Amino acid sequence: MKKKLIKLLICCIVIPGGLWAFIINFGSNLPERYEETTGLDIPMPEPREGYEIIYPEVIKTSNPNYTASFYYISKKRQVIYRYDADRYLELQGENCEGLIWYHDQAKNIHTRIDKVFFTRDRLPKFNYYNPGKDYIGIPTDDMSAIAFSIDSGKTFYVGNVTSFAAKPSEQVERFIGVDDSPLTLEFSDSDIKKGLGYFKNKITISGNTGNFILKNDVLFGETVFYERMGLNPRQFYHSLNGIDTKADINLYLKGKNMSEIQQFGSYWEIYYKPAYIERITGARNIKLEPYQGWDKIRCEIGAEK
């Protein structure tokens, strides 16, 4: 009986304890591999007196190719654009680099757009108009991001231009953001899970949108904001070229860009509806008068206060 207890003690305590001690000792002698650490192990930036550290880009830690993107900005500001007597944009920062504030004095709206950091080369150089009141769109010069609001500037989201529609900013004549009446359009939908197969569905498209007017093209903001899907409002800009003939429609639906544009079955049919094409082509002829705002964003290095 005593021998059995001794064997049980050795099996349950002595052997596991010895293995644990060996693992700890062996592991402590392995070389440390700091090069594999990413994400939260990125050193934090040093604070600077009088400056705020901001992270306009999301820090992604699952991919070692992503790094923390941070900027120092001061409290200094300058007005860089006016829509009218009550609404204007301020740039917070120095040397024409920083974050943009949207102000509406009449409605007491003061919103800092933290998601897009504007460097000097990202401030748009093309003509910029925004007669819309609910829709406010503020593009970057390289079209990498368009800060936009559909609630009169209270909340801003970020839209972008699809890769196959993007053009150099030198080709942009002007950007215009407008409020327009909604359109209700029909498209082919499907719900295989519920056994409904394909059926005709209707969707109401918001008229609050922005358009890049180019010499031979219009990049139009997709104005369905996916609220019915429980997502934040989104806006993608697409090219007018290539949607006005059946051959080009088939190329879009079956060609190399299929994965980018065919997201919701035949939802893209709405872009080929005559009423929608008419609205997009009409963006070139939108009358700006009487428009009280500036024609371009203006920033002067050293003018911040």
Task: Outline the fold blueprint.
Blueprint: H1 2-28, E1 52-54, E2 71-73, E3 77-82, E4 87-94, E5 97-104, E6 109-118, E7 127-129, E8 136-139, E9 146-149, E10 157-161, E11 172-178, E12 183-191, E13 197-205, E14 209-214, E15 218-221, E16 236-239, H2 246-254, H3 258-261, H4 274-282
Parallel strand pairs: 7-11, 10-16
Antiparallel strand pairs: 1-2, 3-4, 4-5, 5-6, 8-9, 9-10, 11-14, 12-13, 14-15, 15-16
Describe this structure in words.
With 305 residues, this protein is of the alpha+beta class. It contains 4 helices and 16 strands. Strands 7-11-14-15-16-10-9-8 form an 8-stranded mixed sheet, with no helix packed on it. Strands 3-4-5-6 form a 4-stranded antiparallel sheet, with no helix packed on it. The protein has a two-stranded antiparallel sheet with strand order 1-2. The longest helix is centred in the N-terminal third of the chain and has 27 residues.
Write a compact overview of the structure shown.
With 305 residues, this protein is of the alpha+beta class. 16% of the residues lie in helices and 30% in strands. The chain has an eight-stranded mixed β-sheet, with no helix packed on it. Strands 3-4-5-6 form a four-stranded antiparallel β-sheet, with no helix packed on it.
